[in-house]
From TrEMBL:
Belongs to the class-III pyridoxal-phosphate-dependent aminotransferase family. This is 4-aminobutyrate aminotransferase-like enzyme. Its cofactor is pyridoxal 5'-phosphate. It comes from Tunturiibacter empetritectus. The keyword Transferase applies.
Amino acid sequence: MPLWKNRGVNQFEFVSGEGAHLYDGSGRRFLDLTSGWNVANVGWQNRRLLEAFTNQAQQLSFSPSWCWHELRNRLAISLKRYFPMDVDVIGACTGAEAIENALKIARRYSGRHTIVGFRETYHGSTLGALQAGGVPSFRGVDIPQNDLHRFLPLPEPHITEEELGEAISDCVTRKPYPAAILIEPLFSNPGVIEGQPHFFEVLQKAARSVDALIIVDEVGTGFGRTGRMFAFEHLGINPDIVALGKAMGGAVAPISAAIARKPLGDVCKGLAFDSSYAWNPPSCAVALENIQILEDESLIARAHDLGEKIKLQFEQSTGNFGESVGLFGRGLEMAIRLPAGPTGNENLRLLMAQLADENIFAERSRYTNSLLLMPPLTIAETDLDSAIAQIVRILGERKPY
């Protein structure tokens, strides 16, 4: 019986990795379609990242969080280049901490308390992040909401504009007005839901009408995953706070940030925003090199191009399994969704088992019958082509849907 109880374990135990592949203890090689849930964007065991970490750790492995360090400043300057507004950068270690800091900033700055989120979303395992997510079973403890959190329906195609408008009126533009709306530019956990055309623009307009802030959770979608540096760039909105994490450290070092437009960052004072290991020098060195790799190897454009190729392959293959199986997402943040219900769930289970038998490591959505396609951005095009072909073949064999 394992003593490690954070989440539970499956049948996989990986002992090494390289690029888009993971290896188990027997030496069996798996093609990875998860990136560790969007962590290893620049590939597993990236040599440049490991060298950046090691070189800095040998010089200084830790710096107190209240002390100046040049790498912290350089990383903040590097990140600021990607945002359309003048910003402050609040460093942390994990995506959940970045979300917590974003929520604290919104509440302190606005003087309000209510946060509007979305059903079936997950923003991290700390208490505030869990409460802002729309899955009651994930919250871990039963705390009365007391109107501190309101939840919009996910903007799926079957939800009408009228229904969304009514939900926005109920959650956003009624008193007490919210401090902020917490969104994901792609709702990954429910099966990579993009949102209806102009939905986020309408939502932003409603938020602005009551002076509510827009917080964008880019923890899973940032750093090139969707074919843009940050996925909010697809949406036509101007966020007030953006939470970063996961791929920021390239599967080498834990590091995250809340990026807040000025003057919101002025409220970030005192121990409420401190974290002992936040932006430790080796982590900063890794994050800086990670950004440089994305630029040097044109991985952001590559994610877009590979995503378009997946769409084309899928469209050309729909005759094998019918239109009841859909493809959703952008870049290399994709999901193949099977029909709802027990049959779809069983077909998805069998699909994942067969992929594992064929040395492909994949994950599924927690709430829908969706296979997630989130490989490292460095994946060889031939490997990706082969994986998609295998998935299409297996789906065709599993008819009817």
